[in-house]
What does this fold into?
Amino acid sequence: MNQISIQNTNSDYFLKSVSKPFYQILVFNGCGKFEINLTHYEFTGYTILFLTPYQQFKWLDTNKTELQLIQFHGDYYCIEYHKNLISCNGILFNNIYEKPFFKIDKVYFDEICDIIDKMKKESRNEIESPFTNSIIKSYLQLILSISSKEKSKYLTNIKPNEIPNEDLVLFQGLLEKHYKTERSVAFYASSFYLSTDAFSKKIKKQFSKTPSQLIQERVILEAKKLLHLTYKSIKEIAQELNFEDEFYFSRYFKKIVGVSPSLYRKNVGISIVAK
It folds into this structure.
């Protein structure tokens, strides 16, 4: 398995749903629509997008958009291992409450594209060097650093009417507390004295996702974490996430992710920080 690839491509490459065992960074400019895990998004301007392993991505526009694409395996660059250097986990990747992309200024767009060009040039170097891998990783780390800084600025510049109200913050707190044991929308709606329909509309307006999607994504996010960052068996993970048995957990996971927990672990690997 190729541990990292850097390439120019276009939106035609993503017209079908793409799901891979890599972290992916897409850099592009224009306007259009795409789908991530069945949620539709629109973009305009200079954009950078971050996908985690086996996130399903599909381009919805027929207009061709040119992209820069970086794909890397967790064994090549572990975002958890480097978290003391780059805090991108939860900012760029693995945040179910925020959009996995954001708009950047042209100056940073050009800077990131320039770094990608340097990565491609280094990877094509015909003279083998023991430093090539280190140089490419340093460039990758620089892109993640710039992106984390810009994403943090982006989040602090959200307009007041776009800031989640107290009820939505409360929902996030409830979900983080109860996702392992409570997967019914009715449970969360009852905390707000709302019907499931009214509650679902309220949540979808803010997050572009239904409560059911958010509950599923939170469970799957934890499942992926346990598969990648621990040596726990599938049975132990199923028990920790309060599934009836490992077979029901496997069906649940495969229906949402597209692959079984065992295949996910095999292809994504177990992190060097696993305990």
